[in-house]
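S1.2 Input.
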Amino acid sequence: MSGLDASAAGGVLTRRRFFESLASVGGMSLVLSGMEALGYGIASATERPPELTGGAKNTKIVILGAGLAGMTAAYELSKAGYQVQVLEARAFAGGRCQTARKGFKHTDLIGHEQTCDFDDGLYINVGPWRIPYHHRSTLHYTKAFGVPLESFVNDNDAAYVYFEKGAGPLAGKPVRKGEIAADIRGYTAELVAKAASAGALDAPLTGLDREKFIAYLVNEGRLSKDLAYKGTEGRGFSVNPGAGVNPGPGKELPPYAFKDVLDSGAWKVLSSVTGYEQQRTMLQPAGGMDQIAKAFEKRVGPMIRYGAVVQKIKQSPSGVTVAFKDADGKPGEVTADYCLCTIPLSVLKQIDLDASAPFKAAMSGVAYAPVNKIGLQMKTRFWEEKHHIYGGHIYTDLAGINSISLPSTGWQGEKGVLLGYYAFGGEAAKISAKTPAERAAFAVAAGQKVFPEYADNFEKAFSFSWHLAEYNLGGWAEWGETGRKDSYPILCEPDGRLYLAGEHLSYLGGWQAGAIESAWQQIGKIHARVSKA
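S1.3 Output.
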């Protein structure tokens, strides 16, 4: 995405170029807040599982993978009378839906072994960690299974923005997000209001329209009568209002200079929650995201064979045979009428698979994202006590960090676990090559730049790199335009008696709802086929 570049004509930052640049980072809501609605993306397309009526006819289904897609399919198919067997390579269910708490173990492909030793009651969601309100498929099961939910603070004006690569006096300085938001909104409104007042906007406005629009901008940007932005109490106080005469009304923080706000680059984070998949307040299961996986496992656990690593998938006109090795290395085999495979494509394409050439070729049409997370246990909740930040994200331009996220649970407790980095791509791959101790040291050193209390409060860490997880080999599927067009449709349809499901076969990539709804769609297809047989 482009930043606030100078115009190609003369190198001048024109009013027109300024508005275009704001739009390029999703900032049109700063000009017209109602336009945010036009950026709506993707919600759950389906709210409930398909009705599998008409009988299962003693049909056997083997499901590969006990993540949310696999367990969703197992739950719904077994309810409909299908004979279901699930093979899971790990010793536990959940797939990407994992929460690290005391006793949780993980060994990555480099050989780094970790056992989480956070204090009792503390945890970090190393996989999915938030639920949008419109992911009705996920919420269908949290409600059906009685999984308690709580608010997830996804946006917090009190949280800091820390950008080192910008210019001017705000570079390398923790700045409240709300201050940046107020100032960029105010100055933007000032520019637009003055342009509208002079009749300089491209779009023709009637006199009455212009008056109403300017009134909106005055209100939106808290402008003075001369259409100037001079700050607003909404951005905070240097001395808070209080009792009596002193402090009395308090003292408002003066705005940063417009040029300083632009030079800092901090305004780029203001697009962070304007997409439909990211709301300012989201949801999370109380006690960790794995409560959803555990709720499924409670219902389908007897169908799951753990420690079963798939070696080969063979088809015939009448059925499917899956060969695997168990936890002791002994070979085993399962035969069924149909196979629903939820194994990530990054892993599946390494398995001996009996499928058509186009189907196999299509599996190479998608890449998987390198993704890093690290949980840092702190002995005090200094972000609350010293900085008055309750949840939300610290946005940075620090390589390998991306963002630091503060817990949305355990308010005012003694200790807490924060997310020390959430990184993707090349930087994630680079940091994941470090040892767990080195990763923790890296994260603490970065956090120290934002919070002076960081290093003194750090106690323990647990890191997870999804591209180094043996049965994932990436955080989520990343489809390009060509892959979506040419490969994706092929994989959404069965190849013989083999069906695929998972977040990778949805447009809700990386989200639990994508896995669930993909499973719903595929079991609907299987049942329709069985019903016609």
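S1.4 Remarks. The chain has 16 helices and 26 strands.
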